[in-house]
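Quick start: what a row looks like.
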Amino acid sequence: MVTRAATSSANDTQPILVTGASGYIGGRLVVRLLEAGYRVRCMARNPGKLKTRPWAGRDDVEIVAGDAGDESSLNAAMHGCGAAYYLVHSMVVSGKEYADTDAHLAQTFARCAGASGLSRIIYLGGLGETGAGLSEHLSSRRQVEHELASGPVPVTVLRAAMIIGSGSASFEILRYLVERLPVMITPKWVSTESQPIAVRNVLHYLVHCLDVPDTIGRTLDIGGPDVVTYRQLMEIMASARGLPRRWIIPVPVLTPKLSSLWIHLVTPLDRRIARPLAEGLRNRVVCRDDEAARLMPQDLLTVQQAIEAALSRVESDEVETSWSDAGLIPGDPDWAGGTVFVDRRTIAINADAPAVFRALCRVGGGHGYYAADVLWRIRGWLDRLVGGPGLRRGRRHTEHISYGDALDFWRVTDVTQNRSLSLRAEMKLPGEAMLTFEVTSDEDTNEPLTELTQTARFRPRGLLGLLYWAAVYPFHGYVFRGMLKGIKAQAEHADPSEHRE
């Protein structure tokens, strides 16, 4: 990798602004920029999500709060920066609003970039043949390019098709469809050609374009060495997973809406994210030329290599970032006032606080919930059927939990090592729900003794909310008491060699 020591620029002492640093690409890009010798300023709506990252405490990293739709916070974040990465996307906004929202955010960003004196903007967009017939999703990406270029700051646009990497939205759709469905009734888009690219190759282009002047003001297509259909992608994935042949039957009647609902049920992705992705699959997404590879040469992974590398990361529990990292984390609800139902339970555990906390932090994902897993799975399926995330999101790491992480249909809203964990429900509910755990140690005894307190809170919304609480409360004794007993057993029988402060 080319480092800053090997290059010279008027912006050597200026930090690089990364918006969307809590997202899938942004979280990985920060690391690569630091490795290349750049100073980095990360902007996020929720800076707490970034403060647990391994690089957060470095002297060459700044973390600032900012909203891409707020000019004052944007101007403050851009002040003194040399260049900025625009990695903001609003696909999760319902309906067609995401296109209007994206255009407005890009306009604001371009205006602030000009006022702040940035030298350039770098944007990661989507591949797709130009002209009429683009999906709403890809048309929105083109509009963002246009709005960013409307200001005085030159823009470098890198257009990519499917990005293959552990934790990416497209990769997760592909993996889950292939793993769960031996027979697939698919839309006609399975015959559409695509030129996927490995996430490591995308990051190489994003970093190295800073040091290649010929990329300034250019739109460059980036892709791997293979042009394949989505059917071939599924076959390659099945082979890499050691699965028997998948039977793929394309039919003309499946609409993007039906496709997105099917993706929602079978994969971890929400239908609001799946819909624009499904719509975009009808467009051929192949590089028009190899200009990017000529300007910024690197070893490009084949589709087979990219899939195998991603699967290896998943299997070794080394997923660096995930598509779910960028989820919204609203502030804890105001529990004062109104009707709030509280279910609080405490259990004494003959283990120290770190052992109890480690057992607690294994909850969810493939490990399950220590008890009543059948009921949890039923609740997950019901949530998926009504449009919620269900249990399919899993968790990014099998043991470690950070602020902002998704745990199935929960979101981590607070975590204090060896002391507390707070989860906010993102399942479809007629109200607001929180599940908190507090770990307290009795230091006056000779034996390690810890109390774990579990508190479930629910603020109902209307009559339906009251009926919901009445329906689920009888199961709490079995579900939550069983969870506490499972954590107790895990902590008390933990291997002492696992102890980590």
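That is the whole record. The two ends are 35 Å apart (CA to CA). The CA atoms of residues 45 and 207 lie 23 Å apart.
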